[in-house]
Structures are given as C-alpha cells and as structure tokens.
Amino acid sequence: MSSPSSRAAALAAPVWALALVLVLVLGACSSQPSSPAPDAAPTAPAPAAEPASLDELDPATMTVPHTDLCAGLTAAAVEAALQGEPRRVETWADGQQARLSTQVRDVAHEDGCRFDGPGRTSAAAWVFTPPVSPERADELARAAGAGSRCRDVPDAAAYGDPSAARTCRSGPLRETRYAGLVGDAWLTCSLSAPRSVDRADLEARADAWCAAVLLGAAPDRTSANG
Length: 226
Fold this sequence. Notes:
Layout: H1 4-30, H2 75-82, E1 88-92, E2 97-99, E3 105-107, E4 110-116, E5 122-128, H3 134-144, E6 150-152, E7 163-170, E8 173-182, E9 185-194, H4 199-217
Antiparallel strand pairs: 1-4, 2-3, 4-5, 5-9, 6-7, 7-8, 8-9
Helix pairs in contact: 2-4
C-alpha cells in the first residue's frame, strides 16, 4: 500500500506537465510578429528633395513677383554658390542706387540683391520692376547674348521664354548669367568668380544658383518632371 506522500507526488506530475505545455505554446505564439493596431497612423513619406538644377524646373508654370525677389533665398543656396559665407550683402529696389555689375553702379529700375563671398566670388539676382512684354523680352534676350568675350552656356536649360545663358570674361573675372521672361517678369541671375575657377564648375554652380533664385521667387512652383 502506497504512502500518502507517494500518492501526492503522483497527482502533482500531470499538473506540472500541463503547465510546461502551456508555457511552450504561449512562447511560440508570442514569437509571431504582431499586427499593427487598427487605428495606428500610417508612416508619412519622406519629403521630396528640392530641385537642384534648372533642368528640374518648368519656368512656364511659375509666377515671379516684381518686388521682394530675394526674400525667399536660403542661406544654404547662397553659401553653395559662393562656396563660403557671404562677406558683403547688398539689396536694392526701384529708384535706388545699386551696383548692377562688378563695374557698373547706377539708379536701378529693379528689385534685387548681391552677395560677395570669399575669393572674389559674387552671386546676384534681380528682376525688372515694370512688367515686360514678349516683344521687349526678345530685345533683352538678344542684348543678353551679345559680347565678343561671351559664349553660350552648353546645353543651358530655359530660364523663361525667351531666355539667354552666357558666360563672359571681364578682366580677371568670369561671369555666368541667366536671364529670361517668366510670366511678365524679366528675371536675371549671375555668378562670377576669378578665371582660375574652372569654367564648367562655374557654370554648374550658376545653374544651381539660378534654380535657387527661381525657387525662392516663385513659391507656387512646379517641377519639369511633374
């Protein structure tokens, strides 16, 4: 006849085995990936990168203001064009004296700005204050393309319709300039640097700078790729 203690041990054995089975089953279930909560918010997509060149923009869909042209420019765009921080900043409006180029200072009928950086680099942008007709724009485009020390920027993207893109020499400096009719606004941007700077590098930086000018001036913008 078995003792009371042996009978208790025999009864406890099935309970212990059942507990082990439950632990294994629950552990297997918890290893399965959990499904998201029904009301969980979807992950927001990363914001699209800003266009970095004129090829990515469509000036025909943009409207450029005749005042406060430079209000939308970012410090990053200026520093990228100058390859450094600006050492001198100048802004002007219609009727004010302004340094319209590296060698010309006159009363402006424009709204614009200029940033002088290290190594005699300079980035500028301006827009005519009065609206410009297509006929007048054709004259301005022809004038922008003139100059014996100038050459067309190879494969230049349109900077409006009509538009012109030229790189010109002036003493120890070389300047790349884009100009064009965007809506009824005649818009110009330029980047100049010493002639020791590679021409292709200057033109690539000017393209990015002029794209930044167009982006800053036209908040309701559309890229050329949709």
